[in-house]
């Protein structure tokens, strides 16, 4: 049976038009003015609503063990939060054990996600070491639909040497893949933590001081110099500071192709939250940390200007009670990460579109179309056009609400955006033509499928 959405306004990254849309057999079959209903069509009146392509979050950690504790959420609970917020596809991070193979890691992540996930999903493959075995598996990952990779410059259990990063860049370039890196100088982070804790500075106030903007900017600069030598277009994940973006602009002036992602928490929260009463600052411990209001304003300026390409979440949820509290006496013991997959679209609409900072077309580009193009999913996803998958968010611009942990689908016991007032909301969410969420409630769960991605579009 076809579903006919009548009277809505279809929005893309390049414009908007009031058109009807018919979807059937998972695909958008027809778009046009005043489409007539066929016998058996389910006709839904969406007048006054925006029809947006399903949002894509290219940076999630749905199910992760940080070496001490497991995330509060998993693929099932995190993905329920995703779809009620309008996110119909995610790209998670598959991370192998040291000494393990990429093939085994991929099989493990498939086992965690398959038939348990309510949005469509793919993975970036993390490269936490580099050797002949791992290098030989990079082409295999491309064949399996995993066309993007991640490496780390921080975290002792995850990071590799600069030499390993450079060798991986050359191998990934041969396969026309995409590399993203967590850019912080791990040695400097370790030394700063050792110094601060040794001096008795153990409260959450000192978390951002252990990872200042220079630590991120130095790693970004080093990463970009290596990428220049390798001739590889690269991605910078969760960029958080003015100094880092200035490095990106210099690289672009040299002719380098650089993709930049930031996250909602760097746009709507700031480092003053680390000085909250008691241990409240523990809720906001993530890496890179929240930054100054000046950094926040600079990031917004560059979202508006287009220097920042995409907005994803780095969703990584640990409970405040019992997990974040592991660092009550030492900020460096607090599990790093914030939940965010459920709230990203509504935050960007409320604090971007509704405030006049960005257009709705820009929001669609940042949260959907550019991500689909960058990570080999376009035009299967990221746009509403005939032949594309019917991942559709019916967006109510008149919706109003307040973000609260009490009403969220995620299993984590808090939200860093507690009490923030919102404008606009997803009325209905369709995943490949099926109604999966409506008015903040899951209608049909566990319908997600693996997305076999093509190689990255380096020109987008």
UniProtKB/TrEMBL annotation:
Protein name stated in the entry: Dihydropyrimidinase
Organism: Vagococcus allomyrinae
The EC number(s) this enzyme carries: 3.5.2.2
Residues bearing the modification N6-carboxylysine: 150
InterPro entries from the UniProt entry: Amidohydro-rel (IPR006680), Hydantoinase/dihydroPyrase (IPR011778), Metal-dep_hydrolase_composite (IPR011059), Metal_Hydrolase (IPR032466), Metallo-dep_Hydrolases_sf (IPR050378)
Domain Amidohydrolase-related span(s) in chain numbering: 50-436
GO cellular component: cytosol
Similarity comment text for this entry: Belongs to the metallo-dependent hydrolases superfamily. Hydantoinase/dihydropyrimidinase family.
Keyword annotations: Hydrolase, Metal-binding
Enzyme class, spelled out: hydrolase
Gene Ontology MF term list: dihydropyrimidinase activity; metal ion binding
Cofactor(s) needed by this chain: Zn(2+)
Modifications after synthesis and translation: Carbamylation allows a single lysine to coordinate two divalent metal cations.
CDD domains: D-HYD (cd01314)
